[in-house]
Amino acid sequence: MQNTLSLDYKVETITHERDSTLPSSQQKCLDPSQELCKHAHADVLGIHVSAIDMRRALELSQRWIERGRPGYICVTGVHGVMEAQKDQKLRAILNHAIVNTPDGMPMTWVGRLQGFSEMDRVYGPGFMAEMCQMSVEKNYRHFFYGGQPGVAEELKASLMARFPGLQVVGTYTPPFRALNLYEEEALLAQLRSCRPHILWVGLSTPKQERFMAEYVDRLGVPLLVGVGAAFDYHTGRVRDCPEWVKRAGLQWCHRLAQDPRRLWRRYLTNNPAFLWKITRQLLKSQPTEHVL
């Protein structure tokens, strides 16, 4: 029997036990009355990957910003899912994000096999570009946190040139360690002064997810988004690949060829393990059709 689920009018509630280690804003997300914290999701090895496409991701982001309460979005692919298999705290952080976008084609394929036929990839750099385009009309202010020294400033110049009228009100390049009290205060003061609507976090997974969960209630920013290598893509440090390579699920090969020393373990260890685990999960489950 076919089930039809319209994300615009009807939602599937995600329920969890309250976890005192999570930020208070994410505790509030467990309240079933909060509409944006209830939506359909695919189950990818225990990670709730939002059953959305780009249009829906933009819509949810806009509504959350205009609500004004702090929350974070995770952009999740195979690497994040596999890291969460060995880190229960990371799993909780991912599952309590307001949205977990399907960053890689494997996330989308699993969702479709679970019945979400219109679920589509929401790729981190693409999502960032679409949000910047929307922000010109909405007058949203952006702040870039992360990257190597100089990258955030270069990203600011690049995106402001690409999207005339875009407001980038600040950048911050963190050290390669946890912030100390002085650095925290400096960051908070900068954010209080420029009051961004969106803080883009360009660290690696799982650093960016842990940062967002730790600081979401302290920064005074409505929306934090962890986009990993998007800073490097938009500044030309990492070359993008053709769209057909992305749609074929082979972007990891393109990235591996550019940086084999750093990425070989991630892809050549995680990818086969993911394929084995997700095949076992799917063989045990029965698909049900849903419509976005």
CATH architecture of the domain at 29-173 and 183-234: 3-Layer(aba) Sandwich
Please give the oligomerization state of what you see: single chain
Task: Estimate what percentage of residues fall within beta strands.
Answer: 5-15%
Count of β-strands: 8
Gyration radius (Cα, Å) is: 18 Å
Distance between the termini: 18 Å
Question: Which sequence of SSEs, written as H and E, runs from N to C?
Answer: HEEHEHHEHHEHEHEHEHHHH
Annotated CATH topology of the domain at 29-173 and 183-234: Rossmann fold
Low-confidence stretches: 1-20
Give the overall silhouette. Answer: globular
Q: Structural class of the secondary structure composition?
A: alpha/beta
Major β-sheet annotation: 6 strands, parallel
Q: CATH first level of the domain at 29-173 and 183-234: which class?
A: Alpha Beta
Q: What is the helix content? A: 40-55%
Major sheet strand order: 4-3-8-7-5-6
Describe this protein's structure:
Helix 3 (78-85) crosses helix 13. Helix 7 (151-162) links the parallel strand 5 and strand 6. The model is unreliable at 1-20 (pLDDT under 50). The chain has helices spanning 24-28, 54-67, 78-85, 88-95, 105-113, 124-138, 151-162, 181-194, 207-215, 230-234, 243-247, 251-258, 260-284, and strands spanning 41-44, 47-50, 71-76, 99-102, 141-146, 167-172, 198-202, 223-226. The two termini are 18 Å apart. Strands 4-3-8-7-5-6 form a six-stranded parallel sheet, sandwiched between helices. The protein is an alpha/beta fold and 292 residues long.
Summarize this entry quickly:
The chain has 292 residues and is α/β, with parallel strands linked by helices. It has helices spanning 24-28, 54-67, 78-85, 88-95, 105-113, 124-138, 151-162, 181-194, 207-215, 230-234, 243-247, 251-258, 260-284, and strands at residues 41-44, 47-50, 71-76, 99-102, 141-146, 167-172, 198-202, 223-226. It has a six-stranded parallel sheet, with helices on both faces. It has a two-stranded antiparallel ribbon with strand order 1-2.
